[in-house]
Amino acid sequence: MTGLFKNLSLSRCFPRGRRLGETVRGCLTDRAGIAAVEFGMVLPMFLLFLFGTVEFGRFMWSENALDYAADQTARYALANPSATTSDVKTYAESQFTTIDKADVTVIVADELLNGINYLKVTVTHPYETLLPLVPFGPFTLTRVSRTPK
């Protein structure tokens, strides 16, 4: 029977032949398993930091993709003055390589500011986090680019 309990961790805390005070002191000073307890305390904070970093990078990637698409569409409209509004929208939708085109709204409109005619390209995209643990969103990303006509 002693061979069966020999490998259990309780056998270190409660060995045979010790007095109660020595046994309690032995259990309180035993350091077996302390790394597992520390790991359990640190792991949630580490995972929150890791997933927060991933979500922030994904957010910046989406914002940059929208900004690039709006700028490229405005440049296309500047280089092709005979292009219609539907041509400009089609070109804008072709610029999205990393974002789902079905979720993106492209608005192309003329705008008059201080007596100058501008072509205004507005690109919007609803952004949602991948993990429900990260407490952000959903919200809409909007990027605007203006080009003088």
Give the arrangement of secondary structure elements:
Elements (H helix, E strand, L loop, with lengths): L1 H4 L4 H4 L6 H10 L4 H46 L5 H10 L10 E9 L2 E12 L11 E10 L1
Antiparallel strand pairs: 1-2, 2-3
Helix pairs in contact: 4-5
Give the DSSP E fraction (strand runs of 2 or more residues). Answer: 15-25%
Overall structural class, as computed from helix and strand content, comes to alpha+beta
Roughly how many Å is the radius of gyration?
31 Å
Would you count the extended β strands for me? 3
| SSE arrangement, N to C | HHHHHEEE
Mean pLDDT: 80
Sketch the major β-sheet: 3 strands, antiparallel
C-alpha end-to-end distance = 93 Å
Low-confidence stretches: none
Query: What is the general shape?
Result: rod-shaped
Total of helices: 5
Spatial strand order of the main sheet: 1-2-3
The helix fraction, in percent, is 40-55%
